[in-house]
Automatic annotation (TrEMBL):
It comes from Falsiroseomonas frigidaquae. Residues 184-391 are annotated as: Phosphopantothenate--cysteine ligase. Residues 1-183 are annotated as: Phosphopantothenoylcysteine decarboxylase. Catalyzes two steps in the biosynthesis of coenzyme A. In the first step cysteine is conjugated to 4'-phosphopantothenate to form 4-phosphopantothenoylcysteine, in the latter compound is decarboxylated to form 4'-phosphopantotheine. The keyword Lyase applies. Pathway: Cofactor biosynthesis; coenzyme A biosynthesis; CoA from (R)-pantothenate: step 3/5; Cofactor biosynthesis; coenzyme A biosynthesis; CoA from (R)-pantothenate: step 2/5. This is Coenzyme A biosynthesis bifunctional protein CoaBC.
Length: 391
């Protein structure tokens, strides 16, 4: 719940600033936008005003008459320049103040985050490299740019970071919660295991519990990487979401996200996958019996990460969905998989896909029985326990 001053400078990626404003507001922040002359060529003042619900400033002298650039500069908790063009970064590095954005950037005492966006050649230019070094030495935080296809027919580092990634960086800088400075990896949702190019095996996991845990951890200030199978629930704000389909992809994404202080494995990972996935759709043959599907074992992501020799997160939390003997099975699972905690769900009711959950937290110290709670509340309690444990 912070006040952000968002400077939008001239870049084709400026349209993404509207999405950033939407996500930031959804996360509870107030956003005051400033458009540079270049920024105003790519997004309209009207669109920005509509999405931000705030007055948009674009003229130093008009702003002066209204509230004054010093007050504008002093008000925010964080100044974000997204997209930050090569020109804006150069002006910042040189300390120029020739328009409202640069004047505010020079006058502010708030922390500053820049999300650069430019052509790869401009990003690689020694002038830009030197400017970024100067800004970093001054404590300016940077998110991106990312590598990938550009609006021009070329590719390379220079793409504006995705709005969700920028928001995650914002949350990280604002975070004063007990998990600030911590990185947590969360898995969520089902996996899909291909049978042939058009069919797959999956399960009914909605991703609600895992996504709620990711959101609750982010709300306590953690940087969260959420590795999710295909789900219909929306991405939690302020979380980096990596989308995968199969168990093997999920394991690779979790490993790529390490190091992490903690990992929470809430995904309903398929234990088995079809052994042979042909390149063609399996045909129905008239008169012939249906084909069999031979299954093979998937990697156990929780056990693999919990038993790692290097970069094992300090706290590894697994889930156990059981319909009977919930706690003894969970205690057994905790030992077998080598994780620290098991959140044991009693799924004898309508938990899969539902909004409530009855869980027991199984740790080395013993078992805690939690009452039947909404999944959001289970998530908040678990996040609070994780914060306590990492402290
Ligand atoms: O063995 P079981 O599937 O009951 O274990 C459940 C726990 O293990 C959950 O935390 C789930 O996310 C995790 N798991 C996994 N990879 C698998 C199977 C389960 O990470 N292949």
């Amino acid at each position: 719940m912070a006040h952000l001053l968002l400077i939008v400078s001239g870049s084709v990626a400026a349209y993404k600033a509207l999405e950033l404003v939407r996500l930031a507001r959804r996360a509870g922040h107030a956003v005051t936008p400033i458009l540079t002359a270049g920024g105003a060529r790519f997004v309209t003042k009207e669109a920005m005003a509509g999405i931000s619900g705030a007055r948009v400033h674009d003229d130093l002298w008009a702003a002066e008459a209204e509230i004054g650039h010093i007050r504008l500069a002093r008000a925010p908790d964080l100044v974000v320049a997204a997209p930050a063009s090569a020109d804006l970064l150069a002006k910042m590095a040189a300390g120029l103040a020739d328009d409202l954005a640069t004047t505010v950037l020079l006058a502010t005492r708030a922390p500053v985050l820049v999300a650069p966006a430019m052509n790869p050649a401009m990003w690689a230019h020694p002038a830009t490299v030197a400017n970024m070094k100067t800004l970093a030495a001054r404590g300016v935080a940077v998110v991106g740019p990312e590598d990938g296809p550009m609006a021009e027919p070329e590719s390379g580092p220079g793409r504006l970071a995705e709005p969700a990634t920028i928001l995650a960086a914002i949350q990280g800088l604002l975070a004063s919660g007990p998990l600030s400075g911590r990185h947590v990896v969360v898995t969520s949702g089902p996996t899909q295991e291909a049978i042939d190019p058009v069919r797959y095996i999956a399960n009914r996991s909605s991703g609600r519990q895992g996504h709620a845990i990711a959101a609750a951890l982010a709300a306590l200030g953690a940087r969260v990487t959420l590795v999710s199978g295909p789900v219909a629930v929306p991405d939690p704000a302020g979380v980096t979401v990596v989308r995968i389909e199969s168990a093997r992809d999920m394991l690779a994404a979790v490993e790529a996200a390490l190091p992490a202080d903690a990992a929470v494995f809430a995904a309903a990972v398929a234990d088995f996958r079809p052994a042979d996935v042909g390149t063609q759709k399996i045909k129905k043959v008239p008169g012939a019996p249906p084909p069999g599907i031979t299954l093979t074992l998937n990697p156990d992501i929780l056990a693999t990460i919990a038993q790692r020799q290097v970069q094992r997160p300090a706290l590894v939390v697994g889930f156990a969905a059981e319909t009977e003997n919930v706690v003894p099975h969970a205690q057994d699972k905790r030992r077998r998989k080598g994780c620290d905690w098991i959140v044991a769900n009693d799924v004898s009711g309508d938990v899969m896909g539902g909004v409530e959950n009855t869980v027991h937290l199984v740790t080395e110290a013993g078992v805690e029985d939690w009452p039947r709670l909404p999944k959001d509340e289970v998530a908040r309690r678990l996040a609070a326990r994780i914060a306590e444990s990492l402290d």
